Amino acid sequence: MAIVDQGEKLARDVIPTFKWRHISWVKELGIEVIKDTHAQSVSREGLHLKDNDGNESVRACDLLIVAGRRESNNKLTSELMFNCDELYTIGDAVSPRNICDAVHEGYRTGVRV
Ligand SMILES: Cc1cc2nc3c(=O)[nH]c(=O)nc-3n(C[C@H](O)[C@H](O)[C@H](O)COP(=O)(O)OP(=O)(O)OC[C@H]3O[C@@H](n4cnc5c(N)ncnc54)[C@H](O)[C@@H]3O)c2cc1C
Fold first, then answer.
1. In this structure, which of 60, 74, 88, 105 has its CB flanked by the most CB atoms within 10 Å?
2. What is the domain-level CATH number for residue 54?
3. Cβ of residue 98 lying under 6 Å from some atom of ligand 1
4. Which residue's C-alpha comes closest to atom 6 of ligand 1?
5. pLDDT over 90 at 39, yes or no
6. In a domain, 51, yes or no
7. What is the mean pLDDT of residues 23-40?
8. Chain segment 47-94, per-residue pLDDT in tens
């Protein structure tokens, strides 16, 4: 089993409470970590990789889990924008972060309204 990450460290956006546990599981279970590497495509040969130095390789695999970068979905904001007097966008719809940010923004907005 292997984890491919384009950065130099795993779990950069994971809160510290969980991070140390997840990182230690990776070590304990002997999961290989392939850092500084981009997944480029999938073919019959496997997953095609390219590291930050431009070296290309193919990794055979029978199961692949894609967990790419998260993106905001704020379609509802643009749809409602001209149909109400006040509109507030909070949480991941602003930018993907964590539950604490979403809850705090909900609280702050609720108090202000
Ligand atoms: C795989 C994964 C793991 C995560 N792990 C953690 C973690 O361990 N700790 C942590 O703090 N954060 C974690 N997060 C981030 C956290 O889940 C989000 O930051 C948080 O849920 C954002 O809350 P939100 O209310 O803004 O958005 P969401 O929780 O995404 O809620 C938005 C809701 O709006 C609904 N919706 C969208 N469009 C419409 C529409 N047009 N009409 C009606 N409903 C609509 C969606 O279906 C959804 O239910 C994780 C995220 C992912 C993807």
1. 105
2. 3.50.50.60
3. yes
4. 98
5. yes
6. yes
7. 95
8. 999 999 999 999 999 999 998 888 999 999 999 999 999 999 999 999
Report if residue 67 sits inside a domain: no
Nearest-5° Cα angle at 108, 106 to 112:
115
Atom of ligand 1 nearest to the CA of 67: 1
Report how far residue 101's alpha carbon sits from residue 95's, in angstroms, rounded to the nearest whole number: 10
Segment 3-30, tens digit of pLDDT: 999 999 888 878 888 889 999 999 999 9
Tell me, yes or no, whether 53 and 90 share the same domain.
no
The domain tally of the chain equals: 2
Residue 2 CB–ligand 1 contact under 6 Å: no
Domain-embedded: residue 94? yes
CA dihedral 98, 7, 46, 54 (to 10 degrees): 150
Q: Whose CA is nearest to atom 41 of ligand 1?
A: 76
Residue 15 within a domain: yes
Residue 76 to residue 44: CA distance in whole angstroms: 39
